[in-house]
Design a protein that fits this description.
The structure is a single chain. The protein is α+β, with helices and mostly antiparallel strands. It is built from four helices and seven strands; from the N terminus they run αβββαβααβββ. 37% of the residues lie in helices and 30% in strands. The longest helix is centred in the middle third of the chain and has 26 residues, at 51-76. It is globular, with a radius of gyration of 15 Å.
């Protein structure tokens, strides 16, 4: 099975996974009463100016586009493209529920779907200079900020 097919299966499984009663955080992944957040791809740590980092950004963007297209074809419909920059500014003085608290600080934009009672999205997390990029997926019952 290709990486894209595995990621597609992971995202669809994530949407059916029950939420735990308590928050848990392990590395770049978390789950809680209203959310799951997982890492699909993780780049090695490096300098944001590195050529390799730019190549990983391009790879992660291509993977996100491919996953979005496949989810659209599978009946999810086209994703909303949701910029988190404004939400990050609005949230500067307030605490947001998980996973939005992490997403507004690390993910510039998302491909986002509303299915049943959950929001599901895919984005590239930019954790800061020297920290790795990550292609993430999440599902939550919390509305976007």
């Amino acid at each position: 099975m290709s990486g894209t097919a595995q990621h597609l299966d992971t995202i669809e499984s994530l949407c059916a996974l029950p939420f735990p009663d308590a928050d848990s955080l392990a590395g770049y992944e978390s789950s809680g009463p209203n959310h799951h957040l997982i890492t699909l791809l993780l780049a090695p740590a490096g300098n944001a100016a590195d050529t390799a980092t730019a190549e990983f950004e391009d790879q992660f963007e291509s993977e996100r586009e491919a996953l979005s297209l496949l989810l659209t074809v599978r009946g999810w419909g086209p994703p909303d493209r949701f910029a988190l920059t404004g939400a990050a500014l609005r949230a500067a003085d307030e605490r947001l529920p998980a996973p939005w608290d992490l997403l507004v600080r690390t993910v510039p934009d998302l491909h986002l779907w509303r299915r049943a009672d959950r929001w599901t999205g895919i984005g590239t997390a930019h954790h800061g200079p020297g920290l790795p990029l990550a292609l993430i997926a999440f599902t939550t019952t919390e509305d976007p900020p």
